[in-house]
Amino acid sequence: MSAIDSVEEINVSATEPEASSSSDFWKKTDVFLENCSEYLNPILVKETRQALKSKQFVITFSLVLIAAWGWSMLGIAMYSPGIAYSPAGASLLHIYLDILLFPLVLIIPFSAFRSLASEQEDGTYELLSISTLKPEQIIRGKLGSAILQSMVYFSALAPCIGFTYLLRGIDIITISILLLIVFLLTCILSVTGLLLATVTRSKQWQSVLSVVVVLLFAFCYFFTVWMSLFMNTIDTSWQAYDQEEFWFILAAIISAYVSYFLLIFYAATAQITFASENRSSKLRAVMLVQHFLILGWMFYIWVYSNFDAPALMFAAGMLTVHWAIMGALMNGEQSTLSPRVRRSIPDTLVGRISLNWFLPGPARGYFYAISGIIGGGLSVVLIQLCAELAGLDHWYGIEQMFWFTFTMSAYAIIYLGMGRLIMMALRKYFFADVFLSFLIHILLIMIGSFAPLILHLSIPSISNYDYSLIEMPNPFWSITEFFGRGSLSYNYQFIVLQFFLITGTAFMLLLQIVVSAKDLVPEKVAVPSRVLEEDALLMPVEEPVSDDPWDQE
Amino acid sequence: MIKTRKPMIELRRLHRFFGKTKAVNDISFEVYAGQAFGYIGPNGAGKTTSMRILATLDLPSAGDALLDGFSVINDPDRVRKRLGFMPDYFGTYSNVNCWEYLDFYARAYGLRGNERRKALNYTMDFTGVDVMKNKPIAGLSKGMKQRLCLGRAMIHDPAVLILDEPAAGLDPRARIELREMIRRLAADGKTFLISSHILTELAEMCDVVGIIEQGELLASGTVAEIQKSQVDHSQIRVRVLCNTDKLMQWLNENEKPETLIADGELLTFSHDGDRHSEAALLKKMVEAKFEIAEFAAQHTSLEDVFLNVTKGRVQ
């Protein structure tokens, strides 16, 4: 950077504080903040500069302040003169929260959505993507800006919320939990807005999407306001912070929240990541964490409820649905594994066996999803078996648990397999992405459920509402029919269904292995010499220095 | 200005298909460090598509493109560090002034502290944006926006600059100023890939040009090489004060031109050869006692070559 280096630092000297000046303090603060900003995400710096200058922020902020001031006056007038003695704190707080919800649930998440969508519309996203910023930094910066704006609104209403604490009828734990919920809601809605902004780059579809997103956030806003008003009508003595269940449910909700937040965050990041990069591994890791969270929490509920609750069956059901949704999305990944990703394939056999599942691609995605389903089912059956051997009370027998998990797994394996084959066929004609894949799987399950029903009802001889073997493709009715009544009966319908499911699953697995064999074990690619050359230049390997005095001259 | 024989830009059998449309069809060329490569072609020829692939904004259907030896497919992060791209649109933000805009890109390219401040000062000084650093971008003229965009592309001091139609829509003064800036950067050793419809400008700025149509590279080389390979002869116009017929006869006997047209005392005829042979011909005519009042050789321009090579086909 010879030309640049030769330039004198004109502005640097200008920023140096002048001695004994009255504005010394502010200049020093300015320099300090400028230095601090060096460590901040560039997107956050840019977005904050833009947001604080925008009319939208000024208008919303003013409206929130006016509404809060208005409600303070009105609330005091309403509860006076006994405001110091009546439990008015909760009512006042709920309205303050409703005021706060408008920017936090509607405006900020929508601004986050527009901020990324407009970058794509105006072409600035392209310029951003060719900078050295990573996609994760871009999403993090935009999310950081949303969080910063929410902090500004929280700060603006902090005196009002503090005021409610001074009144009767509300405690600090309730205030903290409510504020935490609102904050977490803003974060997850903002990251959802960012994910939705990546769905399409076409201007026409972006316009349609904008309307959908506004409606979605408006619904969330009205729902949260309704919830807040509803909670206000309940006697406030319901809070049972000393009860174990409350904290257990809170911990479960927060762990689920964190996992879904990460899933949405990484999905948004993957959507804007360059096609030859690995866009899947982090998402797959989060899916696995969610698998163990579901299993862990359900196991806890099972133990907590003295082993007789259907928590294990519920766990198996949740895991199947979880992996079926994730499998439908993973089936939409691009089948080509770029040489860049192939470079990262582990050298050792053990490394490949344990880490290849996390590599992108529909073949590995399909087997990853069904491994999750089978693994979840086996875990549940194993827990049930242990409980039975230990003589613990239980709701269902091991046999029933086995057939239940097998039936669900078999349906998922067959439907996901069919979805994958359809996606393979479609990819020969046009570009098909994860969203199309998801839609195709939804369509497939709808056809599988409704087509037999229509056929069933249109045949006069069997047109009644009893289960018949025509309904075999319908997983919902079949599972409810055989497992929803408490005890399992081995009638001929059950035996025929299981026969078809066993054959269908075996055939589908075999077919998938045949079509995916090549993709399941990808070959490692050597790092190009130019890359090694540059790496060696950037991180030269130091020659080992001998401690032996005889080696030294 | 060839400094070393290391290709900074290399296209290897690059293909890009959009359905049945072959936007880029088997293009290969190399641009060496310090060279300026002019990319010429009609609208829809595939210039922007191949530039976007080089800028890591798109992936090729087949083939590869390398920048300083790094593949745009497999090492886009390393390519981006070395690349400054100026697309055919501005890509500016609302509620941001010129300084904030460049400051943001400096940060986005990982420049911190003094390094960022120096880069900002140099870029604003170089592009002349410093006089309006606090002005909102929305209020800038097209010429100033183009300067700002050039500043954005060069803020991280990249080795390669790809400029897509940098002079489009600029007035003559802004065009000359932009050309001057590009010349200064080229003199600094930057490698350029420039597309433009203003062919005379490209001829002045670029060491090498490539003519592309319907996704295919029809010709490439130095302007002189292309002119020589594509056109057989130049035209010479002579105004003789008397003895026009005699001169015609003399030319037919001595030069045997393919075409010879007389218009009063003005003679226009074809001539094979370089500037030295033109000088020799003039000398011979003077020695043959013809009173030559005007002698002008009309060489084929890049525009003529372009029209000759391309067929105006549109996909």
Task: Please characterize this protein's 3D structure.
The complex is a heterodimer of chains A (553) and B (315). With 553 residues, chain A is mainly alpha-helical. Chain A folds into two domains: 27-267, no CATH class; 274-528, no CATH class. Chain A contains 21 helices and no strands. In chain A, helix 9 (172-197) packs parallel to helix 11. Chain B has 315 residues and is an alpha/beta fold. Chain B has two domains: 7-222, P-loop containing nucleotide triphosphate hydrolases (Rossmann fold), CATH 3.40.50; 232-299, YebC, transcriptional regulation domain (Alpha-Beta Plaits, 2-Layer Sandwich). A six-stranded mixed beta sheet of chain B has the order 6-7-8-3-9-10, with helices on both faces. A four-stranded antiparallel beta sheet of chain B has the order 2-1-4-5, covered by helices on one side. In chain B, strands 12-13-11-14 form a four-stranded antiparallel beta sheet, with helices on one face. The longest helix of chain B is centred in the middle third of the chain and has 16 residues, at 172-187. Chain B is elongated. Chain B starts with 6 loop residues before the first strand and ends in a 6-residue tail after the last helix. The chains are: A mainly alpha (553), B alpha/beta (315). At the A-B interface, helix 1, helix 2, helix 4, helix 7 and helix 21 of A face strand 5, helix 2, helix 3 and helix 4 of B.
